[in-house]
Please model this.
Amino acid sequence: MDTQYLNQCIKNIKVQNVDNADVEIVNNSPLVMIGKGRQGAVFQLSDDICVKVFGNNEDCEREYYALSLGQHTTLFPKVYANGPLYIAMEIIKGVDIREYLQSQPLTIGLSTKLIEMLITFKEIGFERIDHHKRQIYLLQDGSLKVIDVARTVWRDRVYPYPRKLLTSLGEENKELFLSHVQELAPELYEEWMHYIRMEELSRDVYQVLMSEPKDTNVVKTLNKRLLTTKDENNYVVQLEGLVHKVFKEEWVKTMLARGADPDTVMWRIDEYWDYHEQAWESVLEKGGNSEKGKQKKGTKTEISTKSKKTQLLNEYWDFLEQGRKSEKDKKQDKDKDKDKDKDKQQKRTKTEQNQTTKKDKNRETTKKDKNRETTKKDKKQDKNKKQNKDKKQDKEKKTRHK
Model:
């Protein structure tokens, strides 16, 4: 591979990240773009090699690190070169699972390969053992290849089961895949179903939080139903991430249903969680939940920690209240705008009616004027005819007299 030529091409490609949308590209190089996404765009370098150009260093570093973890396996494209904003890698020649399942059935053989893929993810150290079906390719020899792996590493909050993969399969193939998992790996099936049920309970908790935001006792009672696994420490970490994910999704749906701006909603909820995650970590560090700083119940440290947690919780409810009030104000503004539009429409209709009436009057006046002119013209013609007739008669009389 000619790295000098590659670097020259990269200098003439500009990739710009866009919030909640695919990147924008300015390509002044001879390379042809063959695809793009949220983090970068892919260009064909040769028949077998492509180069992915990123909008920022962090996404490039994430993907290169994730690909490096799996280079000893057959699951990932081979990496040939990389730089601050690009990765040159093998072109995957196959069909993605999304397209494959549109015409072919999900066999137990393919399900086995998908389970083996998740096992590989776990073994090489991916934090998120999940992937969308459009990012999984099936090659002619029956093996799988995976692309777009930047988001599989350095993730603090992830689903503890392959939720994205299951959801992307669709309801029918999801049930079929789960039946294959139950047959091939019963223990794994039970664990996934456990977390699926926990997700459903989390949605119930969300509904309670929205309908009775100040009734924290109900929430505590429901949360006790969630703490059922043996390894409580690990389970709490997994569950915290799951509840966070579900809440974010449901909150965004709720706000969008109320007519809120999507970009504003996403930015606001991310800002809120980032702030409170940092605040919560600070509370835990100072408040005795660490191994070094455990305190007995009833001590000043524990009371201080509880008061800080209560303060954070109250701020959280205030945020929800502000969201509701904001949406209520927007609704009132919309109603006012509707009333104004209605008044404008009525005025416009009245004006149009007046204009129509005026036009009709003008048309009637013009018609009358034309009729008068016609009548006047007819009278003049009749008068001229009579005069000519009289002249003719006088002339005939004179002739007879002679």
